[in-house]
Write a structure and sequence with these properties.
430 residues; alpha+beta; BirA Bifunctional Protein, domain 2; Rossmann fold; five-stranded mixed sheet; 16 helices; 16 strands; 38% helix; binds adenosine monophosphate
Length: 430
């Protein structure tokens, strides 16, 4: 065992899994670009108040899980536990024209009990759409998340939606809930028996069986919505219908952060165990920009866990075509000049190509070519170098062993033909 290991709850993502990780980010970037979202890159750490004020003191993330520290200048900082607060902080700071559509990819840090699919550093892709209260914006975000999952080959998921109401109807609902919980305090889980008054909504979110039982008979959030919130929610649901997205309303979907108003949603994998099936979720947060000192600005967005997407993809047999293997491997017995020229030529044409170093023997280079998983070996020895030719050998698939010597100028064209036969177009799948 090496002296140092990645810290508990973290892990190194290396090839070939990192090829799928990159593909997931690439597919998200493409979906976001197609929908008019621009990338925002923000710091990994913020003034701790950014997260305390937005997620809420009583949220698990702030209460128990945040990585906080003092820097050398005595500032109290925290590593990002999620993406939204930083992006909204950036919005308030820069005041871009609205609607502002931003997407991000970020690590997120939470001191959780590590288990399968649950890490202390995980990674999220997400979007935020600020400056419009239009329910169509909620639908656009949900549609983007679902479309992205489909683009990753993930089809077995369930969309849960709910409305948290707003400053008009939520206080009334909370009061009814408080009355109900007061009468059932003794039945709650140990933690919530002691703390439920600080934020009664957390009980709706609690995973413990005791709270789940109390919750079953609790007053329903959906029954307490005011007319504008009801209309907003109905418009979101019709939009989802129009998109052909199946949804299920879940009254207990309050999510882990205090900033949500109106719509909340979560996409859960049907191919994964309950403890790790949340793929992504989000909602509307019409008060968040104001909470961070900005002008009142409605907003909606979501975060989606990359590790969970990879788990769901594996469970559905998706992304298996993304291997990170190169298309071609150049074997050079001419002293190096051939490899330099051919790898450049192939790469310029979009055919991924690797090569051996150190002037190794033919046997060693063939072994390296095999290990690389390349489908083609392009061999150039002194004869080929002098004649301006290259020998192309198929390494994998039905034609494995087939070999031909061709003009070097024809390499790119012939290489693409041979790769297409294998059902693996040049360049692999991004
Ligand atoms: P949240 O910000 O809690 O809504 O999380 C957004 C998404 O990030 C979830 O739906 C999960 O896919 C993922 N996620 C959250 N926490 C973790 C974690 N500790 N490890 C891995 N993925 C996580």
């Amino acid at each position: 065992m090496s002296t140092f290991q990645a810290p508990t709850g973290t892990r190194d993502v290396v090839a070939p899994e990192s090829a799928r990780f990159a593909a997931v980010v690439g597919r998200f970037a493409e979906r976001a670009r197609l929908a008019g979202f621009g990338l925002v890159v923000s710091p990994m750490f913020e003034d701790v108040a950014v997260f305390r004020r937005t997620a809420g003191e009583e949220s698990d993330v702030v209460k128990d899980e945040m990585y906080e520290f003092d820097d050398k200048g005595g500032r109290r900082l925290a590593l990002r536990p999620e993406g939204t607060a930083s992006v909204v902080r950036a919005f308030v700071q820069h005041r871009p024209p609205v609607p502002w559509k931003a997407w991000y990819v970020t690590p997120a840090f939470r001191y959780e009990r590590p288990q399968a699919g649950r890490y202390r550093q995980h990674h999220q892709v997400g979007v935020e759409l600020l400056g419009t209260p239009d329910p169509a914006a909620d639908v656009e975000c949900i549609g983007l998340l679902a479309g992205f999952l489909h683009a990753c080959g993930i089809h077995r998921f369930e969309l849960k939606v709910n409305s948290m109401g707003d400053a008009n109807c939520m206080p009334g609902y909370k009061a009814t809930l408080v009355d109900y919980l007061s009468a059932h305090e003794g039945e709650l889980c140990e933690e919530h028996r002691a703390r439920w008054r600080r934020n009664p909504l957390r009980v709706l979110d609690c995973k413990k069986p005791a709270c789940a039982t109390v919750r079953e008979r609790a007053p329903r959030l959906s029954g307490a919505l005011c007319d504008p919130c009801r209309h907003h929610f109905d418009a979101v649901l019709s939009g989802l219908d129009a998109l052909g997205l199946a949804w299920r309303q879940d009254d207990t979907l309050v999510r882990g952060f205090d900033y949500y108003t109106r719509t909340t949603f979560e996409l859960g994998s049907l191919a994964l165990d309950a403890a790790q099936n949340a793929l992504g979720g989000g909602g509307r947060y019409d008060g968040l920009a104001e909470q961070l000192g900005g002008p009142a600005t409605p907003g909606v967005g979501f975060g989606c866990g990359i590790e969970r997407v990879l788990l769901a993809a594996a469970a559905e047999g998706a992304l298996s075509e993304v291997t990170g293997r190169v298309d071609a491997f150049v074997i050079d017995l001419s002293g190096g000049a051939g490899a330099l020229e051919l790898t450049s030529r192939l790469r310029a044409a979009g055919i991924s190509a690797d090569r051996a170093f150190d002037g190794r023997s033919l046997k060693a280079q063939l072994k390296a070519a095999d290990r690389s998983g390349a489908r083609l070996a392009c061999i150039v020895g002194p004869d080929e170098l002098a004649a301006g030719t290259v020998t192309v050998r198929v390494l994998t698939g039905q034609q494995a062993g087939q070999q031909e010597t061709i003009d070097r100028e024809a390499l790119v064209g012939r290489g693409k033909e041979l790769l297409a036969v294998a059902g693996r177009p040049a360049g692999g799948t991004p």
